[in-house]
User: Which sequence fits this backbone?
């Protein structure tokens, strides 16, 4: 795929605002019972539909409950195909062999753009455009759009602007969740003086550091600059990038404030960074990461969200307004089948979203899903934060980049920011490395 086509395909996505993704704004939106495509489906008895996704464990089980409702409504049989960690690698041979699944759940707009550019996806406008328009705002629609063509439904959103903490450490240290960056620094020092490392960081792969950078940049540079950087309209050597890296070094620069020190963090994976906060004694008090941390706490530790763990919104920096950085998963059609088309339409309805919303660990970008549909109070708060952030919600910047720059272990943003953790004073050098890697990925000289 050409670099220019990549940029065109992602330009609209990078600029999107997701305020309407989580709420209908001033526009009247359909209720869950009247949303387009709700309640019943066509008779698909005897048909088998394959849906591929990377979800495993609790996520897979919850999604299979969604698929069960589709089976109940249509009489079809749905097969869930586990795609492992790399859905592009899983789908490639199946597409080349002429046997792709009907539907695939893609974890990044960049992957969607790549498959669309290669001609591997079926446009969904003709049969699902009305359903999407009835249940999603224009910003959410753009997430599934490449070069002006609608290819996917944004089915699941992730809110990555949360900071999780051990409630017992906070209580024992006598601190409250901070609202500003300055308060965060004071809180961290107080927790350190209490005898616990304030920050738990796991960066053996690198993506948690890109999430931290993006949250800081969104607040220090603002949404418009964020959009420009996402499209490489400004260089990574811009002063705004250096300012964000400098703020980032205030967290990463002192190894004494990090659980296990800098070397320990570099060898800790994401799951380990969560579980060590709830060890006995705890190793780390706070973790910068998304709403999905709650599922790890409940599933991988003896602690529970609520009595033992909670989160606060990413702090304001120098008076910045509320802002949210997020991501999510998109449902795309790979086979021109009746069952696949009906599955895409179904996943665009509030009924499909409300199944998972009622099970927990899920946020819908649909404007037709009311906050009350979430039975988990944490999910309710996360969904409300998306609404409150308004026009300052942006999609994960690294997910919008060419894969070699934005989402590859050991190189690009992930690799360079991992190196930065070992050399947090080298702001200029890090910015230069990021710019060189971006130019290479975009085919620029």
Assistant:
């Amino acid at each position: 795929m050409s670099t220019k086509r990549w940029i065109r395909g992602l330009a609209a996505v990078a600029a999107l605002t997701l305020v309407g993704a989580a709420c209908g704004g001033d526009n009247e939106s359909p209720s869950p019972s009247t949303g387009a495509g709700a309640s019943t489906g066509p008779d698909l008895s005897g048909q088998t539909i394959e849906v591929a996704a990377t979800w495993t464990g609790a996520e897979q089980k919850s999604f299979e409950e969604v698929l069960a409702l589709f089976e109940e409504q249509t009489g079809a049989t749905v097969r869930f195909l586990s795609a492992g960690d790399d859905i592009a690698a899983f789908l490639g041979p199946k597409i080349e062999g002429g046997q792709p699944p009907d539907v695939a759940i893609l974890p990044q707009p960049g992957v969607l753009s790549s498959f669309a550019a290669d001609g591997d996806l079926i446009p969904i406008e003709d049969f699902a455009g009305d359903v999407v328009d009835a249940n999603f705002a224009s910003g959410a629609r753009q997430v599934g759009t490449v070069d002006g063509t609608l290819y996917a439904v944004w089915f699941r959103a992730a809110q990555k602007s949360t900071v999780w903490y051990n409630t017992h450490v906070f209580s024992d240290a006598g601190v409250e969740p901070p609202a500003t960056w300055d308060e965060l620094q004071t809180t961290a020092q107080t927790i350190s003086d209490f005898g616990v490392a304030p920050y738990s960081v796991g960066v053996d792969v690198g993506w948690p550091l890109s999430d931290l950078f993006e949250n800081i940049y969104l607040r220090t540079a603002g949404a418009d600059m964020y959009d420009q950087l996402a499209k490489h309209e400004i260089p990574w050597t811009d002063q705004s990038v250096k300012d964000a890296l400098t703020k980032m070094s205030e967290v990463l620069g002192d190894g004494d404030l990090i659980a296990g020190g800098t070397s320990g963090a570099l060898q800790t994976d994401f799951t380990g960074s969560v579980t060590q906060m709830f060890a006995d004694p705890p190793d780390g008090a706070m973790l910068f990461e998304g709403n999905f941390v709650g599922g790890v706490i409940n599933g991988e530790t003896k602690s529970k969200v609520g009595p033992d763990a909670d989160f606060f919104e990413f702090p304001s920096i120098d008076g910045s307004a509320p802002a949210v950085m997020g991501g999510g998963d998109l449902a795309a059609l790979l086979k021109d089948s009746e069952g696949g088309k009906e599955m895409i339409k179904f996943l665009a309805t509030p009924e499909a979203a409300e199944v998972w919303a009622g099970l927990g660990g899920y946020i819908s970008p649909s404007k037709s899903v009311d906050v009350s549909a979430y039975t988990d109070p944490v999910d309710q708060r996360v969904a409300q934060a998306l609404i409150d952030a308004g026009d300052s919600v942006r999609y994960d910047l690294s997910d919008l980049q060419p894969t070699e720059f934005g989402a590859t272990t050991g190189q690009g943003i992930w690799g360079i920011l991992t190196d930065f953790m070992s050399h947090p004073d080298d702001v200029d050098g890090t910015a230069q490395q990021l710019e060189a890697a971006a130019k290479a990925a975009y085919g620029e000289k």
